[in-house]
């Protein structure tokens, strides 16, 4: 076990890993099948995945039935887990081979041990979701081709922390959908995954020299936001059966502000003008979802059209709502008011924009 002193030194060494260009593990975006055969590992390979993950696939009896919304939940989970398996396998490759920007110096082996376990755990999450779909005669989700916008260990950790926060928010929505549709037998297993993802998030935050826990009540999300966000890492047209997931894909919202500090301020965003259904931008609003609070609606300010993009600002009321951790931004038709993230998603035209700091 690391002492406090050595752990502090380890974190300092990791935080100073120099940004650099990386060598792609899969320059063509094809990650699967993995060397262990995943997503269709042999029984021997599965046993090794379980050993690496420090645990096994659930072996209890499945629930007697699955609702259509429950099937959508499992498909979204499988889509996300396949993306995460690809991301973490590339990260393990880069750290293992000490690709420039991924040589962590002191603490390298500790980080490798953690990442290998996380990768195996994500493989089990994906196998569990697709296995449940197969059990209920649903088509399992197949992997896509991916491209990850990271250039070094620290950018990889920042991205992992952000998409894990989105997952933690979305699994809240997944469990609510299971409960509303009578899929009670799946709530406990998904809740156990929420705990596992939370433990992973604590690690991602720690190596960024942040407190392990971000918020007392983690930011909620909805399935459509996660579905859209996952596709930002997918090479277009490369997903064999993503069309079997009946969720919405929103038009893109770009956060233009950089190096955002935790303070009340205006933030700058943009979206593609041709994607808009209106030229009257006063009919649109910018909505923030943070923690478990009622969504915050703000007017679009200083709207201009530049090079085919609609560029605007919106107030970010950090001090009023203590908006630490993850904030999800969306451009909606109308100004609400919106009582929940679900109501925001129903009115969303562009999104999600992901803002994270603390």
Give the % helix: 40-55%
Portion in strands: 15-25%
Unreliable stretches: 1-23
Please give the alpha-carbon distance between the first and last residues. Answer: 28 Å
- Globally, the shape reads globular
Q: Order of strands in the sheet with the most strands?
A: 1-2-6-5
Whole-number mean pLDDT: 92
| Strand elements, count | 8
Number of domains: 2
Task: Give the quaternary arrangement of the chains.
Answer: single chain
Number of helices: 9
Biggest sheet: strands, sense, closure?
4 strands, antiparallel
Query: Structural class of the helices, strands and pairings?
Result: alpha+beta
Along the chain, the helix and strand elements come as HHHHHHHEEEEEEHEHE
Radius of gyration: 21 Å
Overview features:
signal; 9 helices; disordered N terminus; 4-stranded antiparallel sheet; Late sexual development protein; Immunoglobulin-like; 2 domains; single chain; alpha+beta; globular; 358 residues
Structure description:
This protein has 358 residues and is of the alpha+beta class. 41% of the residues lie in helices and 15% in strands. It is built from nine helices and eight strands. It has helices at 4-15, 43-53, 68-96, 108-135, 153-180, 187-206, 223-231, 318-321, 341-347; strands at 254-255, 265-272, 284-290, 296-299, 301-306, 309-316, 325-333, 348-357. Strands 1-2-6-5 form a four-stranded antiparallel β-sheet, with no helix packed on it. The longest helix has 29 residues, at 68-96.
């Amino acid at each position: 076990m690391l002492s406090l002193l050595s752990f502090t030194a380890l974190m300092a060494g990791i935080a100073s890993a120099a940004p650099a260009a990386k060598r792609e593990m899969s320059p063509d975006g094809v990650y699967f099948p993995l060397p262990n055969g995943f997503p269709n590992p042999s029984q021997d390979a599965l046993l090794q995945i379980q050993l690496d993950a420090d645990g096994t696939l659930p072996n209890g009896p499945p629930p007697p039935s699955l609702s259509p919304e429950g099937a959508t939940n499992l498909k979204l989970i499988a889509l996300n887990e396949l993306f995460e398996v690809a991301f973490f396998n590339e990260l393990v490759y880069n750290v293992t081979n000490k690709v420039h920007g991924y040589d962590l110096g002191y603490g390298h082996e500790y980080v490798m041990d953690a990442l290998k376990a996380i990768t195996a755990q994500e493989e089990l999450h994906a196998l569990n979701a697709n296995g449940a779909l197969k059990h209920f005669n649903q088509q399992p989700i197949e992997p896509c081709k991916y491209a990850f916008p990271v250039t070094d260990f620290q950018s990889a950790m920042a991205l992992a922390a952000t998409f894990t926060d989105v997952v933690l928010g979305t699994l809240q929505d997944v469990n609510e959908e299971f409960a509303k549709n009578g899929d009670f037998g799946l709530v406990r297993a998904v809740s156990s995954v929420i705990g596992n993802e939370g433990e992973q998030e604590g690690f991602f935050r720690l190596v960024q020299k942040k407190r392990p826990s971000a918020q007392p009540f983690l930011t909620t999300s909805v399935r459509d936001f996660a579905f859209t966000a996952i596709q930002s890492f997918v090479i277009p047209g490369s997903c064999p059966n993503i069309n079997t997931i009946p969720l919405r894909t929103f038009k893109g919202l770009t956060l233009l502000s950089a190096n955002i500090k935790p303070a009340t301020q205006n933030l700058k965003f943009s979206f593609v003008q041709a994607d808009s259904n209106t030229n009257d931008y006063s009919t649109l609003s910018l909505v923030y979802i943070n923690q478990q609070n009622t969504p915050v609606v703000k007017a679009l300010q200083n709207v201009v059209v530049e090079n085919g993009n609609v560029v605007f600002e919106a107030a970010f009321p950090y001090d009023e709502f203590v908006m630490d951790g993850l904030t999800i931004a969306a451009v909606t038709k109308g100004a609400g008011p919106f009582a929940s993230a679900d109501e925001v998603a129903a009115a969303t035209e562009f999104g999600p924009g992901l803002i994270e700091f603390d």
